Amino acid sequence: MCLCRNGPLRGLLLAVLLALTALLAAPAMAQAETEREAATAVGGVSPDIWRQVRSGEVDANFRDTRFDSTYNLVNSSGERWRQLRNRWVSPFGLIAVGGMIAAIALFYVIIGRKDLSEPRTGRKLLRWPLFVRSLHWTVATLFIVLALSGLNLLYGKFVFRSLFGDAVWGAMISASKLAHNYLGPLFGVLLIVLLARVLKHNWPKRHDLEWFRQGGGLVGKGHPDAGFANGGEKLWFWLLATAGLAVVASGFVLDFPNYGQSRDTMQWANLIHGGGALGLTAVALGHIYIGTIGSEGSLEGMTTGYVDETWAKDHHNLWYEEVKDQAVPEERLDAASATDGDRNETASRPG
Fold first, then answer.
1. CB 80, CB 73: distance < 8 Å
2. How far, in Å, CA of 84 to CA of 77, rounded?
3. What is the CATH number of the domain that holds 287?
C-alpha cells in the first residue's frame, strides 16, 4: 500500500518496465523490419524463385552487382570448385606427399644407400658447369620455398593455428601468401631457362626402357645402361616440362587476375595448380633422396661440378665411354682451385 502511494517510486518502476519491454521487443521488431525490407526489395521470394536463381533462369534483376558480371546470385560453379578442392585435391596431396615420405623412409631402412661398386679412382669428370649448377640450385631453392608456402596455405590452418594461435598462424599465412605470389613468377621464368639448357640431354632413348625395367640399379647389383641422363632423370625432366609448366601457367592465371579471366577460369586454374604442385612435390622428394643420401657420390656432381670415374661408370656408363679420356686427377683440380683462391685473395687486397 505504501509503495503504491509513493508517486516517484511508482514512476521509476514504470520506467524500468518500459525499458525492459523495449529491449525484449527490439529483436522481434528488427526481424519484422528485415522481412518487410526483403519483401519490398525482392517481391514474392519463394523456393521456386531461388531454384530459378540457382539455375540461371532469371532476368538481370536477380544478378549480382559486380561490374560486367554474368554470374547468378547463387554461384553453382563455386560450390563445384569447393567440393573438388576439398574432396579430391587436398586428400590427394596428403596421400601423395605423405605416402612418398613413408616410402622413402621404408626404402632407406630396408635397402639403404646405394654405394659405389668399386673404390674411387681419384680421377674426375666434369658433369655440370657453374652456370647450370647455379641455375639448378636457384630453381631448387625457389621450388622448396613455394612447396612449403603452398602446403601452409592448404593445410596450415589444421596444424599451426591450433598449435600457435591465430596471431602466429595469421603471420605465417601472410608471409606464405607473399612469398608464393612474388617468387612464383620468378621460379617459372628460371625453370623454363633450366629446361631449355638441359633439353639436349633428356631425349628418350631405347635403353631407358631397360633402365626402368631394372629399377634404375637401386635394387640389386646391376647397373643398367645410361647416357648423360638416365631414365629417372629424364622422367623428372619431362614431368617438369609438362606438369611443371602447367603449374606455372595456372599460377600466372591466379597471380594476375586482372587480365580478363572469368571466375570459372580462376577456379579451374586453382585446381590444376594445386593438384599439379602437390604431385610434383611428392616426386621431388624422391629426386632429392636419390640425389643426396640415397646414392653415394651423386650430390658431388651438382655441388663441385665433377664426379668420380667410378660413379660415372656405375650410373652413366654410356656417357663415361664418351668422355673418359677427359678425366682429370683430383690433385690437379685441388691445385687449380687453390691457385684461383690465392688469385682472388690477392685481387681483393687494397692498394
1. no
2. 11
3. 1.20.950.20
